[in-house]
Amino acid sequence: MNTNKTKVIISMSPEETMKLGEDFAKALKQGDVVAFYGELGSGKTTMIKGICSGLGIEGGVRSPSFVFLRIYKAENTVYHFDFYRLKKKEELLNTGYDEFFYNSGIVLLEWADRIEDLLPELRFDVVMKILNENEREIRISHTGQRVWSM
Ligand SMILES: Nc1ncnc2c1ncn2[C@@H]1O[C@H](COP(=O)(O)OP(=O)(O)OP(=O)(O)O)[C@@H](O)[C@H]1O
Ligand SMILES: [Mg+2]
To answer: Could you tell me the distance, in angstroms and rounded to a whole number, from the CA of residue 43 to the centre of ligand 2?
Structure first.
């Protein structure tokens, strides 16, 4: 177990990325927000599936392609947003999105860079990079003073 501010992992397979998500889920608490960044196919949804599995959510996790939000309920409620289809961040204003961002659930945001200045100041950032077909660099950090481990 290591206590850290930033963790960088190289994943060699989707299964490894899922396992990483499961392990990272242990660091999450009610009210946490996790912003995911990375190009198409970098593994955001794959890691989110792992996180959900770690939180006791069985199946049904996929990118909320035609809606911005999917909600999964287990011990914690998970709000899974995907802003890929958001044309401009103004579309999000007045939707009540902030009620989800600042509540007792766990919030997972794909394509977080699309809403950069609407993101809660205190959050985890997960930056995913495609190194080659099966390798991904995954960098997890927290924007605040949070001490966390996985
Ligand atoms: N190490 C790896 N980790 C995660 N995914 C991998 C890895 N190696 C290959 N892949 C493949 O990359 C793809 C990742 O897809 P995923 O839907 O998780 O990406 P995404 O970042 O959510 O994409 P999008 O921006 O379209 O939502 C899958 O096809 C998966 O099989
Ligand atoms: Mg996705």
So the answer is: 7
pTM above 0.70?
A: yes
Per the CB < 8 A criterion, the answer to whether 89 and 115 are in contact is: yes
Fold that domain 3-149 belongs to in CATH: Rossmann fold (3.40.50)
Gap from CA of 128 to ligand 1 centroid (Å): 10
| Cα 142-107-86 angle, rounded to 5 deg | 105
pLDDT at 30: 95
3-state helix, strand, coil in the chain (%, to 5): 25, 30, 45
Instruction: Give the chain's end-to-end CA distance (angstroms, integer).
Output: 6
Phi–psi pair at 31, nearest 5 degrees: 90, -5
What are the tokens at 27? 């660091």
